[in-house]
């Protein structure tokens, strides 16, 4: 490994890959550097490449470390190496972007060099950008939901998939949830893929009422597992298999076998532990590309279920949604920490209200901006007697994501 300026040059297969600032600490808690991340991706390259190969991807770059918000780069850098190709995607907004396409281990290390931790590919291949070959379900637990409930919902989803002739491949999300991937035969476009995923979510909710929900609006879910079907919308991406997530313990989104789901815990899978698991057990998703299925029966289910409920809209000219729940907004902030600090300030003023809230009544939303996330905190007062509900007050943190400015009340 030769040095060049402040960079290390790694020989990966037939390619030389430049890794800038290799000794920069990315995860302070376990003491992991950029070089450690590159070595991690090389150790599990077979599995990681399987999850991203030939797929255009958004580059989610943590150039200032995991404590700062990442920025999303759709356009591939002009000075990309020859082993990284590209594909031009047309977005629903009417814009387009030439995005990176990785096909080998060298591409993984190149992404690490840019400050990428997790890899976020689209569900299409570069040779056909209009017909996804992967349906994605994100089992997203509300606060207060235990791992056992998430697993129960996952098995219900597996049963629904089996009933329509499809195979689900589970992996930990790298946070609290579970992702289920389904290979398809690329016979349908994005709207049909999303409709199929929504039908799956609705059927899971029908079979597991109270445990699972397909309600899109967070305040209507309660302490349940949201079967997130909207990850199949055209502009959405999901962290791929073996992606490192920006949590302090360097957690990894890890493929698992169905039979081990009840025994594992997501926190057990980190940059330090997954390579050994991979070396000893191989990749549980090794056969995923050999099992594409048809969505026809899932789309037929959508027809039988009928139109999904639409969110109610406000009566004003804006057409904005009007929630049926008693919501108040607490803060909008550029970072999650600032948003939660605003929540803490509000809680100190209303301790009698806080004592009546359930965990799922505090709604923390990561909102996608033009190139980064911003955060909103709301409180659902459904469990607070109406006479005791505090009114909407000036926001504790009032960030304007559209102007990228922030103002705080004094």
Beta fraction of the residues? 15-25%
> How would a textbook summarize the main sheet?
5 strands, antiparallel
Question: Structural class, judged by helices and strands?
Answer: alpha+beta
Question: What's the helical proportion of residues?
Answer: 10-25%
Can you walk through the features of this model?
The chain has 9 helices and 20 strands. It has helices spanning 34-43, 45-52, 105-113, 147-163, 190-207, 274-281, 296-305, 336-349, 351-354; strands spanning 2-4, 7-12, 15-20, 25-27, 32-33, 56-61, 71-73, 85-90, 96-101, 120-121, 134-141, 169-172, 178-183, 212-213, 225-228, 327-333, 362-368, 373-380, 397-400, 405-408. Strands 6, 7, 8, 9 and 10 form a 5-stranded antiparallel beta sheet that branches. It has a 5-stranded mixed beta sheet with strand order 12-13-11-15-14. The chain has a 5-stranded mixed beta sheet with strand order 17-18-16-19-20. Helix 5 (190-207) crosses helix 7. Mean pLDDT is 90; it is low at 311-319 and 404-410.
Give a short overview.
The protein is α+β, with helices and mostly antiparallel strands. The chain has helices at residues 34-43, 45-52, 105-113, 147-163, 190-207, 274-281, 296-305, 336-349, 351-354, and strands at 2-4, 7-12, 15-20, 25-27, 32-33, 56-61, 71-73, 85-90, 96-101, 120-121, 134-141, 169-172, 178-183, 212-213, 225-228, 327-333, 362-368, 373-380, 397-400, 405-408.
């Amino acid at each position: 490994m030769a040095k060049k300026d402040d960079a290390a040059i790694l020989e990966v297969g037939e390619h030389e890959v430049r890794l800038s600032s290799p000794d920069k600490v990315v995860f302070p808690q376990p003491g992991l550097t950029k070089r450690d991340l590159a070595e991690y991706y090389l150790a599990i390259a077979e599995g990681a490449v399987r999850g991203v190969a030939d797929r255009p991807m958004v580059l989610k770059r943590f150039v200032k470390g995991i404590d700062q918000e990442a920025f999303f780069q759709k356009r591939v850098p002009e000075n990309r190496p020859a082993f990284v190709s590209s594909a031009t995607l047309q977005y629903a907004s009417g814009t387009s972007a030439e995005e990176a396409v990785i096909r080998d281990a060298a591409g993984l290390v190149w992404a690490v060099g840019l400050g990428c931790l997790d890899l976020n590919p689209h569900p299409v291949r570069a040779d056909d950008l209009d017909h996804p070959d992967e349906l994605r379900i994100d089992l997203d637990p509300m606060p207060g939901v235990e791992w056992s409930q998430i697993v129960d919902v996952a098995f219900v989803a597996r049963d629904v998939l089996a009933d329509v002739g499809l195979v689900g491949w589970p992996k930990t999300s790298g946070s609290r949830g579970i992702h289920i991937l389904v290979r398809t035969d690329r016979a349908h476009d994005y709207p049909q893929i999303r409709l199929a995923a929504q039908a799956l979510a609705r059927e899971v909710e029908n079979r597991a009422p109270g445990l699972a929900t397909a309600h899109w609006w967070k305040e209507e879910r309660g302490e349940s597992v949201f079967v997130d079907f909207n990850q199949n919308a055209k502009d959405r991406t999901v962290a791929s298999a073996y992606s490192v997530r920006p949590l302090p313990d360097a957690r990894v989104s890890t493929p698992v076998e169905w039979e081990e789901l009840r025994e594992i815990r997501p926190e057990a899978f980190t940059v330090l532990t997954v390579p050994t698991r991979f070396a000893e057990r191989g990749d549980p998703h090794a056969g995923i590309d050999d099992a594409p299925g048809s969505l026809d029966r899932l789309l037929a289910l959508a027809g039988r279920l009928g139109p999904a409920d639409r969110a109610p809209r406000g009566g004003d000219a804006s057409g904005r949604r009007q929630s049926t729940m008693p919501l108040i907004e607490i803060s909008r902030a550029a970072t999650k920490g600032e948003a939660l600090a605003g929540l803490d300030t509000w809680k100190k003023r209303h301790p009698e209200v806080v004592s009546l809230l359930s965990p799922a009544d505090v709604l923390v939303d990561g909102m996608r901006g033009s190139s980064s996330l911003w955060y909103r905190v709301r409180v659902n007062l459904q469990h607070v007697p109406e006479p005791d509900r505090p009114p909407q007050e000036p926001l504790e943190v009032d960030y304007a994501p559209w102007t990228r400015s922030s103002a705080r009340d004094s």
